[in-house]
Specification:
single chain; Alpha-D-Glucose-1,6-Bisphosphate, Chain A, domain 4; globular; 27% helix
Amino acid sequence: MKNELLMDFSVNKETATINVTREFAADQPTVWAAWTQAKILDQWWAPKPWKSVTKSMEFKEGGRRLYAMVGPEGEEHWSLADFTSISPKDNFKHLSAFCDSEGNISPEIKGSHWNVDFSEKDGITTVTVTIKHDTLETLEQYIKMGFKEGFTMCLGNLDEVLRTLK
């Protein structure tokens, strides 16, 4: 088994796209579960000391996850994922957007379209995430908000969670 797992984060300003490729030392069904089950998502989907709290989740095409990132002082930042396509264990797509606690999408910051692919080789699962923004301006807003740093921390949290799921 490799000692160093791949983590690649790149930004393509021409296409307003973020590409993230990350390897995990776990089998594909376990990694898939960690990305698609609210109980597990809430254990890693926020940069510490923040926590992810899912209000509702229906993981199916046309379904939605409504959740908050809750800060150490109790502050809440709400988001949603509207699932548009699911190929079990291999891929899912969703619209990701900031919203209020009832799921009303924020008009200030446009959402993004996520494509999440899963593949496994020799017990290492690779997750490839492509995040498409409608405009370069929106992409730059996400980068300025610290998306790279926050998402990188979340993926590190997932490493810890996967060790406990084995």
